[in-house]
Amino acid sequence: MTKTEEQNSLPTAAGESLADLSRILYTRGWMPGTSGNLSVRLSGNHASTALITASGRDKGELTAKDMVAVHATTGEEVLLPGRLKASAETSIHTAVYRRTDAAAVVHVHSPYSTVMACRAAEAGRTTALLLERFELLKGLGLDDPARTELPVFRNWSDVRLIADEVATYLASHPGAPPGLLIADHGITTWGRDLAQARNRLECIEAICQLLVLGAREGRAETTEELYQ
Ligand SMILES: [Zn+2]
Protein backbone atom coordinates (compact mmCIF):
# COMPACT_ATOMS: atom_id res chain seq x y z
CA MET A 1 0.00 0.00 0.00
CA THR A 2 1.41 3.43 -0.87
CA LYS A 3 1.51 6.19 1.73
CA THR A 4 -1.35 7.99 -0.03
CA GLU A 5 -3.49 4.85 -0.08
CA GLU A 6 -2.68 4.15 3.57
CA GLN A 7 -3.57 7.72 4.58
CA ASN A 8 -6.87 7.57 2.67
CA SER A 9 -7.83 4.27 4.25
CA LEU A 10 -7.19 5.26 7.88
CA PRO A 11 -10.30 5.10 10.06
CA THR A 12 -11.66 8.56 10.96
CA ALA A 13 -13.32 7.48 14.23
CA ALA A 14 -9.96 7.38 16.03
CA GLY A 15 -9.17 10.92 14.93
CA GLU A 16 -12.57 12.12 16.10
CA SER A 17 -12.06 10.48 19.51
CA LEU A 18 -8.71 12.26 19.84
CA ALA A 19 -10.28 15.60 18.90
CA ASP A 20 -13.16 15.08 21.36
CA LEU A 21 -10.83 14.24 24.26
CA SER A 22 -8.53 17.10 23.35
CA ARG A 23 -11.43 19.55 23.62
CA ILE A 24 -12.47 18.14 26.99
CA LEU A 25 -8.97 18.34 28.46
CA TYR A 26 -8.39 21.80 26.98
CA THR A 27 -11.61 23.03 28.58
CA ARG A 28 -10.40 21.77 31.95
CA GLY A 29 -7.23 23.81 31.56
CA TRP A 30 -5.05 20.73 31.24
CA MET A 31 -3.84 21.56 27.70
CA PRO A 32 -3.27 25.33 27.76
CA GLY A 33 -2.55 26.93 24.39
CA THR A 34 -1.08 24.38 22.03
CA SER A 35 0.43 22.21 24.79
CA GLY A 36 -0.17 18.52 25.38
CA ASN A 37 -0.56 15.67 22.92
CA LEU A 38 -2.74 12.59 22.58
CA SER A 39 -2.38 9.43 20.51
CA VAL A 40 -4.09 6.14 19.76
CA ARG A 41 -2.62 3.02 18.25
CA LEU A 42 -4.82 1.66 15.48
CA SER A 43 -5.87 -1.97 15.23
CA GLY A 44 -6.29 -4.64 12.56
CA ASN A 45 -4.54 -3.85 9.28
CA HIS A 46 -3.26 -0.57 10.73
CA ALA A 47 -1.78 -1.95 13.97
CA SER A 48 1.67 -0.61 13.08
CA THR A 49 0.25 2.92 12.89
CA ALA A 50 -0.67 5.44 15.57
CA LEU A 51 -2.59 8.69 15.16
CA ILE A 52 -1.23 11.63 17.15
CA THR A 53 -2.29 15.24 17.56
CA ALA A 54 -0.45 17.62 15.26
CA SER A 55 2.20 20.01 16.54
CA GLY A 56 1.37 23.65 17.21
CA ARG A 57 -2.41 23.42 17.04
CA ASP A 58 -4.82 24.95 19.53
CA LYS A 59 -5.96 21.93 21.53
CA GLY A 60 -9.46 23.31 22.00
CA GLU A 61 -10.12 23.48 18.27
CA LEU A 62 -8.80 20.21 16.86
CA THR A 63 -10.78 18.15 14.37
CA ALA A 64 -10.12 14.63 13.07
CA LYS A 65 -8.12 16.26 10.25
CA ASP A 66 -5.57 17.62 12.73
CA MET A 67 -4.07 14.20 13.47
CA VAL A 68 -0.87 12.81 11.99
CA ALA A 69 -0.32 9.14 11.22
CA VAL A 70 3.04 7.86 12.47
CA HIS A 71 4.66 4.48 12.81
CA ALA A 72 3.58 3.38 16.30
CA THR A 73 6.98 2.26 17.52
CA THR A 74 9.41 4.45 15.58
CA GLY A 75 7.45 7.71 15.18
CA GLU A 76 8.26 7.90 11.48
CA GLU A 77 5.49 9.85 9.77
CA VAL A 78 3.21 7.83 7.53
CA LEU A 79 1.64 10.90 5.97
CA LEU A 80 2.89 12.53 2.82
CA PRO A 81 5.32 15.32 3.73
CA GLY A 82 4.13 18.92 3.62
CA ARG A 83 0.95 18.51 5.58
CA LEU A 84 0.84 18.69 9.37
CA LYS A 85 3.77 17.88 11.62
CA ALA A 86 3.42 15.26 14.32
CA SER A 87 3.64 16.42 17.93
CA ALA A 88 7.13 17.37 19.05
CA GLU A 89 6.75 14.78 21.82
CA THR A 90 5.87 11.87 19.53
CA SER A 91 8.98 9.95 20.61
CA ILE A 92 7.64 9.64 24.18
CA HIS A 93 4.42 8.08 22.86
CA THR A 94 6.32 5.63 20.67
CA ALA A 95 8.58 4.67 23.60
CA VAL A 96 5.44 3.70 25.53
CA TYR A 97 4.06 1.74 22.56
CA ARG A 98 7.37 -0.11 22.19
CA ARG A 99 7.59 -1.12 25.86
CA THR A 100 3.97 -1.71 26.93
CA ASP A 101 0.76 -3.12 25.47
CA ALA A 102 -0.88 0.32 25.58
CA ALA A 103 -3.08 1.42 22.69
CA ALA A 104 -3.55 5.03 23.82
CA VAL A 105 -1.24 7.64 25.36
CA VAL A 106 -2.26 10.99 26.87
CA HIS A 107 0.15 13.79 27.78
CA VAL A 108 -1.05 17.02 29.41
CA HIS A 109 0.14 19.88 31.62
CA SER A 110 -2.55 19.50 34.26
CA PRO A 111 -1.77 21.77 37.23
CA TYR A 112 -1.55 19.43 40.22
CA SER A 113 0.50 16.75 38.49
CA THR A 114 2.79 19.48 37.22
CA VAL A 115 3.21 20.93 40.71
CA MET A 116 4.19 17.48 42.02
CA ALA A 117 6.50 17.00 39.00
CA CYS A 118 8.28 20.18 40.14
CA ARG A 119 8.43 19.19 43.81
CA ALA A 120 9.68 15.66 43.17
CA ALA A 121 12.30 16.67 40.62
CA GLU A 122 16.01 16.64 41.35
CA ALA A 123 18.75 17.96 39.11
CA GLY A 124 20.71 15.35 37.23
CA ARG A 125 18.67 12.22 37.83
CA THR A 126 15.36 10.45 37.44
CA THR A 127 13.42 10.41 40.70
CA ALA A 128 10.06 8.96 41.81
CA LEU A 129 6.94 10.24 43.53
CA LEU A 130 5.58 7.80 46.10
CA LEU A 131 1.82 7.35 45.86
CA GLU A 132 0.28 5.28 48.64
CA ARG A 133 -2.94 4.62 50.57
CA PHE A 134 -5.30 6.69 48.43
CA GLU A 135 -8.41 4.82 47.28
CA LEU A 136 -7.89 6.44 43.89
CA LEU A 137 -4.85 4.18 43.33
CA LYS A 138 -7.31 1.39 42.53
CA GLY A 139 -8.02 3.19 39.26
CA LEU A 140 -4.51 2.50 37.99
CA GLY A 141 -4.69 -1.29 37.61
CA LEU A 142 -1.58 -1.83 39.77
CA ASP A 143 -0.27 -5.18 41.00
CA ASP A 144 -0.29 -3.62 44.49
CA PRO A 145 -3.15 -1.10 44.63
CA ALA A 146 -1.89 0.26 47.97
CA ARG A 147 1.24 1.93 46.65
CA THR A 148 3.33 2.72 43.63
CA GLU A 149 6.24 4.89 42.61
CA LEU A 150 5.55 7.27 39.78
CA PRO A 151 8.81 7.97 37.93
CA VAL A 152 9.83 11.60 37.39
CA PHE A 153 12.05 12.03 34.35
CA ARG A 154 14.34 14.91 33.57
CA ASN A 155 12.91 17.50 31.19
CA TRP A 156 15.59 17.38 28.51
CA SER A 157 15.16 20.05 25.82
CA ASP A 158 15.90 17.29 23.31
CA VAL A 159 12.70 15.25 23.72
CA ARG A 160 14.38 12.14 22.31
CA LEU A 161 16.53 11.99 25.47
CA ILE A 162 13.37 11.91 27.61
CA ALA A 163 11.99 9.17 25.35
CA ASP A 164 15.22 7.15 25.67
CA GLU A 165 15.07 7.33 29.46
CA VAL A 166 11.38 6.37 29.45
CA ALA A 167 12.04 3.36 27.19
CA THR A 168 14.97 2.20 29.34
CA TYR A 169 12.94 2.59 32.52
CA LEU A 170 9.91 0.72 31.20
CA ALA A 171 12.08 -2.13 29.92
CA SER A 172 13.56 -2.67 33.39
CA HIS A 173 10.37 -2.07 35.44
CA PRO A 174 7.68 -4.52 34.25
CA GLY A 175 5.42 -3.60 37.22
CA ALA A 176 5.67 0.14 36.56
CA PRO A 177 2.49 2.22 36.93
CA PRO A 178 0.75 3.27 33.69
CA GLY A 179 1.99 6.81 33.96
CA LEU A 180 4.98 9.08 34.45
CA LEU A 181 5.87 12.65 35.30
CA ILE A 182 8.35 14.89 33.53
CA ALA A 183 10.10 17.35 35.85
CA ASP A 184 8.73 20.91 35.70
CA HIS A 185 6.62 19.87 32.72
CA GLY A 186 3.61 17.56 33.04
CA ILE A 187 2.18 14.06 33.08
CA THR A 188 1.78 11.16 30.63
CA THR A 189 -0.57 8.19 31.13
CA TRP A 190 -1.56 5.25 28.96
CA GLY A 191 -4.06 2.41 28.71
CA ARG A 192 -5.79 -0.09 26.44
CA ASP A 193 -7.83 2.75 24.90
CA LEU A 194 -8.31 6.50 25.25
CA ALA A 195 -11.00 6.08 27.92
CA GLN A 196 -8.67 4.07 30.18
CA ALA A 197 -5.73 6.41 29.60
CA ARG A 198 -8.03 9.33 30.49
CA ASN A 199 -9.34 7.59 33.63
CA ARG A 200 -5.81 6.95 34.83
CA LEU A 201 -4.86 10.54 34.11
CA GLU A 202 -7.84 11.75 36.17
CA CYS A 203 -6.91 9.45 39.08
CA ILE A 204 -3.27 10.60 39.21
CA GLU A 205 -4.23 14.26 38.81
CA ALA A 206 -6.72 13.85 41.69
CA ILE A 207 -4.09 12.16 43.89
CA CYS A 208 -1.62 14.96 43.12
CA GLN A 209 -4.33 17.48 44.02
CA LEU A 210 -4.76 15.77 47.38
CA LEU A 211 -1.01 15.82 47.95
CA VAL A 212 -0.80 19.52 47.08
CA LEU A 213 -3.72 20.22 49.42
CA GLY A 214 -1.78 18.52 52.19
CA ALA A 215 -3.65 15.24 52.59
CA ARG A 216 -0.51 13.61 53.93
CA GLU A 217 0.67 16.44 56.12
CA GLY A 218 -0.10 17.07 59.76
CA ARG A 219 -0.88 14.54 62.48
CA ALA A 220 -4.14 12.66 62.32
CA GLU A 221 -6.11 12.83 65.56
CA THR A 222 -7.18 9.51 66.99
CA THR A 223 -10.68 8.95 68.31
CA GLU A 224 -9.28 8.84 71.86
CA GLU A 225 -7.65 12.22 71.50
CA LEU A 226 -10.85 13.70 70.12
CA TYR A 227 -12.84 12.66 73.20
CA GLN A 228 -10.32 13.60 75.87
ZN1 LIG B 1 4.36 18.62 27.28
Automatic annotation (TrEMBL):
EC primary class: lyase
Segments forming domain Class II aldolase/adducin N-terminal: 16-212
Pathway it works in: Amino-acid biosynthesis; L-methionine biosynthesis via salvage pathway; L-methionine from S-methyl-5-thio-alpha-D-ribose 1-phosphate: step 2/6
Reactions listed under catalytic activity: 5-(methylsulfanyl)-D-ribulose 1-phosphate = 5-methylsulfanyl-2,3-dioxopentyl phosphate + H2O
Cofactor binding note: Binds 1 zinc ion per subunit.
Coiled-coil parts of chain: none
Binding site for Zn(2+): H107, H109
UniProt key word Metal-binding: yes
Cofactors demanded by this protein: Zn(2+)
Keyword Lyase: yes
Pfam assignment, any one: Aldolase_II
This protein's UniProt keywords: Amino-acid biosynthesis, Lyase, Metal-binding, Methionine biosynthesis, Zinc
A GO MF label: methylthioribulose 1-phosphate dehydratase activity
EC code(s) of this entry: 4.2.1.109
Function according to Swiss-Prot or TrEMBL: Catalyzes the dehydration of methylthioribulose-1-phosphate (MTRu-1-P) into 2,3-diketo-5-methylthiopentyl-1-phosphate (DK-MTP-1-P).
Recorded family membership: Belongs to the aldolase class II family. MtnB subfamily.
Name of the protein described by the UniProt record: Methylthioribulose-1-phosphate dehydratase
Organism for this UniProt entry: Streptomyces hazeniae
Phylogenetic placement of the source organism: Bacteria, Bacillati, Actinomycetota, Actinomycetes, Kitasatosporales
